[in-house]
Write a structure and sequence with these properties.
Length: about 600
Amino acid sequence: MKFSRLAHYFDLIENTPSRLEMTRHLAKLFTEASALEIGPILYLLQGRIVPLYVTAEFNMGEKMVIQAAAQAMGQEKGTFEMLFKKHGDIGSAIEELKQYQASLISHDLSVLEVCSKLRAIVEASGPGSVEKKVSLLSSLIQDLDSLSCRYVVRIPINKLRLGFSDMTILDAFSWMLKQDKSMRGVIEKAYHVRPDIGFIGELLKKHKGKGLENVTPAIFTPILMMRAERLSDPSQIFEKSKNGFIEPKYDGFRLQAHGKDGVVKLFSRSLEDVTHMYPDVAGAVLHELKFKDIIFEGEAIGFNPKTGKLLPFQETVQRKRKYDIEEKIKEIPLKFFAFDLLFLNGSSRLETPLEERRSQLTDLIKNTKTATVNLAPEVRVTSVEIVKKQFEKSIRDNLEGIMIKKHDGTYQPNARNWNWIKYKKSYASRVDDTIDCLVMGYDSGQGKRSGFGIGALLVGVYDAESDDFKTVCKIGTGLTDEEWKLIRVMCDKFKTPKKPIQYDVDKMMNVDVWVKPSIVLEIRSDEITRSPTHTAGRVLQKTKSGGGMEVKTAGFALRFPRLEKLREDKRPDDVTTVLEVASLFNLQNK
């Protein structure tokens, strides 16, 4: 496939307001692509050249792209900067100028040729790498037509974002094979085990949907992490998890460790390879455990080496850094509490009952005072009193609460079910659990905040049924002056001139600046209430006159919301769901 053809699809998708039509366009693109091309095309749709869990940074800014364009078309930088200000998008600016330069001959490169050059940009490093990156991008701009240029220059600066999620791609796979969504479930299950969109696409192209049930974990490909339901009634917990296990609920970094052939990699829940941030944990996995190959999960949390006490998240989070890591290792060492085994010595353990998985972990991990890797302690669920006692102990130990897990439960990637239950502090009239929200946009600041250019954030949660994001509040408290400035910079990286199609927002909640799905915040509020202007859980009905719509059931809203922390470890699809908010609303009113 020629890249100009792919650019045509990019343009079609970017300008399609209907999610269903977008899905059909993607399905047509996948049908047209060959088995060799579909993987690279799928990564390009994500604005990448490799899967999400593989580190591949272009390390290019807009100034370097402008320099490449000027070099390719023999223009002054000022010309591009003027067009950039006009469009607010560097891709459109370069597209316009290239349209005027009909004398420039474009070569219709293939998708694979373009991917090869983009990969060379990523791989350029060391002395002279800036010049090499600029030269490679310049040659691409020379070789491609104007529409292709619009999209290819957005990729190195992470601005491609076409307005759909991975779930839309999974729907498009089903449309490619069956012209409907009937295969979404089996495709999604395979993707949760192997969240490599290119691998899944190639498998579907080669085998027409057969073999999806046989997809198993692969070392160094992170498995989407299992989730837990919430309960705050020890009696209900006991009824659902008799003879299960109670574990402490740590407040640290949830990590998935992969090891093979003397190499260990650590992945966050957002699929990011974070091995370089925690070399002490990776080294401990390699030297303290004996295995041929392994995938297991645990929570890394800071501790005081003098007292042995675990540290609060506010101190542990200082370990999440890219620089001065060795210094922080000495200052804030980590304990890695393993709690689940997913793969061992060539065999998947996803379908193995938890009791057996725990037993195998016990054989692997020997808890000692000096060990970094320890097995999370467990207590059998034998009575309601045991649940209460362990919860109270956890709170005394300054932990978040407890996890309760069915002894015969399997590990279900990305699923949220009653195999796992989390029990955190909860009060009758107050929400003590936090909610992960997506930043959807912001309003310009007034008064003191006018200097920041930002005054309130519109945030929302995910609706799995409609595959979109619904609003729950505007938040204007809980941030320091420095945090407001940081959030503004982050938002402006992903701002867009129009509301993304996956946002369901009441006109009363419109904002000055829209932000594409990218930033996740952890929000705490005093209460969940009902509001007709928020769309999470809102139900509309036709007016009696039939001329419009009116609110039948008001949506959920967070009362007195305030920022707890930025969740860089979570993707937009990982935010709290509308169903979870509804569950919390019901819990607080019991």
